[in-house]
């Protein structure tokens, strides 16, 4: 329905020159405005469907994009539009060079804080991948026996269907290496890895390298077996892959919730897109 005279009171049928004047009237009298009224103009309608159709045709939704002329029915839809079409963070009023840069920003401490807590020492992390690396590397002061191998065995027990763990028959754990002076290469002036020939300034650095996942077998695979065939040598690396949303299998937020489920030993782990 058109409303050429201004904003109408649905109770007394009076017209007002501005929406603010109508609001003063309804506040003083207890009257009501039309139920199905356009968010941008004085048109009102007999049903929600015709109201929505008008606002869609006229671009009269309540939430305006500050980067273009489009309007949206909900704040969530506006936020998604600004992220995907403009690489824009409204909260920080920043435009990013790419959508991936924006995602990294949205997943940073600035927006997420440190919400993932270590179940043993209480240290907090921004992402599930960071928390997992803390445990896999044996860095937790209150869980010295938790490492890459113990986590794999635990996760495997919670994922019997092999959604993202590899079924390594007879797996006994990673081999431990300790470098000695024979690994010193006088021609290169450092301790050399005999597998990849990387050079380290100390025996400790070489030993850490040898016992890292670098030369170990993959323990995990991406659950998106249809379009992604990537394999991973650590739990932190597969979680980082999923958190990045690079293969589009699952949203970042679901990975965070899935990690919390991982710490609940009464549940099986399921990542569903």
UniProtKB/TrEMBL annotation:
Indicate the segments annotated as coiled coil, or none if absent: none
Gene3D superfamilies from the xrefs?
Classic Zinc Finger
Tell me, what is one Gene Ontology molecular-function annotation carried by this entry? zinc ion binding
Pfam families in the record: zf-met
Record keywords, A-Z: Metal-binding, Repeat, Zinc, Zinc-finger
Tell me where in this chain the C2H2-type domain is found.
87-116, 191-218
Query: Which PANTHER family does the UniProt entry name for this protein?
Result: C2H2-TYPE DOMAIN-CONTAINING PROTEIN (PTHR24379:SF121), KRAB AND ZINC FINGER DOMAIN-CONTAINING (PTHR24379)
What is the name attached to this protein's record? C2H2-type domain-containing protein
**Record organism:** Apiospora kogelbergensis
Q: What is the lineage of its organism?
A: Eukaryota, Fungi, Dikarya, Ascomycota, Pezizomycotina
């Amino acid at each position: 329905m058109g409303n050429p005279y201004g904003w109408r009171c649905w109770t007394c049928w009076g017209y007002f020159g501005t929406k603010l004047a109508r609001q003063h009237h309804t506040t003083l009298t207890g009257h009501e405005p039309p139920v199905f009224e356009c968010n941008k103009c004085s048109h009102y309608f007999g049903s929600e469907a015709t109201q929505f159709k008008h606002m869609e045709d006229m671009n009269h939704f309540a939430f305006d994009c500050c980067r273009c002329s489009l309007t949206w029915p909900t704040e969530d839809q506006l936020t998604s539009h600004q992220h995907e079409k403009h690489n824009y963070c409204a909260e920080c009023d920043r435009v990013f060079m790419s959508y991936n840069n924006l995602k990294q920003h949205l997943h940073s401490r600035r927006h997420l804080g440190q919400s993932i807590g270590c179940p043993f020492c209480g240290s907090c992390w921004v992402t599930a991948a960071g928390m997992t690396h803390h445990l896999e590397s044996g860095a937790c002061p209150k869980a010295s026996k938790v490492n890459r191998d113990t986590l794999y065995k635990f996760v495997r027990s919670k994922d019997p269907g092999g959604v993202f763990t590899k079924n390594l028959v007879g797996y006994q754990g990673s081999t431990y290496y300790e470098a000695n002076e024979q690994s010193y290469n006088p021609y290169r002036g450092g301790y050399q890895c005999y597998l990849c020939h990387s050079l380290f300034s100390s025996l400790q650095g070489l030993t850490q390298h040898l016992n890292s996942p670098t030369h170990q077998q993959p323990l995990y695979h991406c659950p998106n077996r249809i379009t992604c065939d990537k394999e991973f040598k650590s739990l932190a690396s597969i979680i980082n892959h999923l958190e990045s949303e690079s293969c589009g299998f699952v949203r970042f937020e679901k990975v965070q919730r899935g990690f919390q489920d991982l710490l609940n030993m009464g549940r099986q782990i399921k990542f569903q897109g």
